[in-house]
Amino acid sequence: MKVLGIETSCDETAVAVVEDGNKILVNLVASQAKVHEQFGGVYPEVASRHHVDQLVPLVEMAIKDHEVDLIAVANGPGLMGALLMGVIGAKSLSYGWEKPLVGVNHVEAHLYSAMMESPPVFPSLGVVVSGGHTFLAKMHGICDYEMIGTTVDDAVGEAFDKVAALLEFPYPGGPHIEKLALEGDENKYPFKAGTVKKRPLDFSFSGLKTNVLYTVKGANCDRKAPSIISEDDKKHIAASFQKAALTNIVNKSLAAAKTFNCKAIYCGGGVTLSKKLKELFEISPYPVFYPPKGLSADNGAVIAGLG
Ligand code: KG4
Ligand code: ZN
Question: What is the fold, at CATH topology level, of the domain defined by 2-113+296-306?
Answer without folding.
Answer: Nucleotidyltransferase; domain 5 (3.30.420)
